[in-house]
Amino acid sequence: MPGHAIDTFPELCARIRDAGHEIAHHGYCHEDVSVPPEADERAILEKGIDRIERLTGSRPRGYRAPYWRSSYRTQELLLEQGFLYDSSLMADDFTPYYQRTGDDLDRADPRSAYRFGAETDLVRSRSPGISTTGTTTRCRPRGRGR
User: Fold this and answer.
1) I need a labelling partner for 105 at 20 to 30 A (CA). Which of 12, 41, 56, 115 fits?
2) How many domains is the chain built from?
3) What mean pLDDT do residues 89-110 have?
């Protein structure tokens, strides 16, 4: 839920919360976070977290990037802020998987091998309905997402 929606329609957002729906992070004003510098992306993330905390009393567990666009820093920021999952992209429609950070393609030499980065504890899933409490054993085993 964009933070701006919480500011603009607090009663409606409270009804959504009270109906038992998860309130996940979706930007503040549905910004394209792939464009601004890191400080601005961080401020947008923190502002949305603040609005969700005020509405729900707890930090959001899930994230979906507005426009389905993330920056190369988004994963690190989500991990830093304690998010459990990100449902922005859809590399696998049915099986949650651990995201990687630091993937690298040498653009100067497109014939070189793609280098996979290290897997993180951030789970990527198309379905926001996955179980993200306790362990994440329902995810594809580590090292098999390549």
Assistant:
1) 41
2) 1
3) 69
DSSP string for the chain: --HHHHHH-HHHHHHHHHTT----B--SS---TTSS-HHHHHHHHHHHHHHHHHHHSS---EE--GGG---TTHHHHHHHTT--EE-S--SSSSS-EEEEE--B--TT-TTSPPB--EEEEEEE-S-TTS--SS--TTSPPTT---
Residue 130 is predicted with a pLDDT of 47
User: Which pTM value belongs to this model?
Assistant: 0.71
Does 117 reside within a domain? yes
8 within some domain: yes
pLDDT digits (tens, 9 = 90+) for 124-146: 765 554 444 433 334 444 554 44
Do the domain assignments include residue 116?
A: yes
What CATH number has the domain bearing residue 39? 3.20.20.370
For residues 49-64, give the mean pLDDT: 96
Give me the domain span that covers residue 22.
Answer: 3-124
